[in-house]
Amino acid sequence: MHSDRFRPLVDAKGPFVSIYFDDSHDTQDAVAQLDARLRDIRKHLEEQAVGAAVIEAIDTAVRAAHPPVGRSGRAVIAAGDTVVLDEHLIRPPTTTVVRVSELPYVVPIVTHGLLHTAYLRVAVDHTGADITVHRSGRVDTESVDGKGYPVHKAKAAEHHEYGKAQPRVEEAVRKNIREVADRITHLTDESRAGLVFIEGEVDARAELVSALPERVAEKAVQLTGGGRAAGIDATEVQHEIGQEFLKRRLASIADAAARFAAGRGTGLAVEGLADVTAALRDGAVDTLIIGDVGEATVVADTDLATIAPDADTVSSLGGAPQRTLRADEALPLLAVATDAALVRTDERLTLADGFGAVLRYAENSSAG
């Protein structure tokens, strides 16, 4: 997962409130369930002496966002009384997580978040398209109604000049598809969307992909469900989109695991808190791999860049060991600050202390 989505957290001032909960809308009482979860979250925050302004900001942000379709999770991170990050997750967490701490907690987003914070969903036919732009909980929808006409082929028995009408129909369809392609290209560039999901009849989907410029076409994913007609099962389409995101997340884990395995013994991969914190201090980490971290902690100076597994190492680096921080908060945030990618691994990798890293270049020495 690219770290640029987390950059606002690096510059934000804590304390931070990091919340993860089930935000599914797959039952008739979904709104009532959301109310109950928000009451529970409010209670947890009040017990941790979080101010009313912060609680209200979180509550407002959750209620103002466009509700998801079907099963979904929600991630909200606030700094002070400002919501800095607000995203839907592919899968809801098994239990609600509420953390109030000096640093933000982003691991659940790395685990279950969408690889791309912005994506397009396009329902296309030969007359135009309905386009929805999804970006960090915000949803904007518009329609493109092509000017090409007619788009339906006359039956030969009803049209004695069928042969002449056929080219006009084909040109009208091409005109409409081009208009849709132009609008999709503009919206993709503007939103920096990572994926463009296309639903509709097979011919219309294929023609649209062919009309897109290469930089946009390579982001296109054709869905088998959905379409522009009334009565489309939105849950089915959203499930298909979720499966595509899941497939890509698993592929990113496989890629990181392969690069980590290849880097072992070459100086291009390290594991364990000592070596990983050393690589992060040097800005050498290309990809931080997060495994089973547990309750591990690290020690840091006032500057997070001076970070190590223990106070003695911080002192040896010329720093003052002033802060004891959770490793699952501090290391990912330092990785973001140094433009490293983040990957949450699964059972295919067992890492010392729960952390590994693929490096940009070989380190000359390990942590001291």
TrEMBL record:
InterPro entries: Bact_RF_family2. It comes from the Bacteria. This is Peptide chain release factor 1.
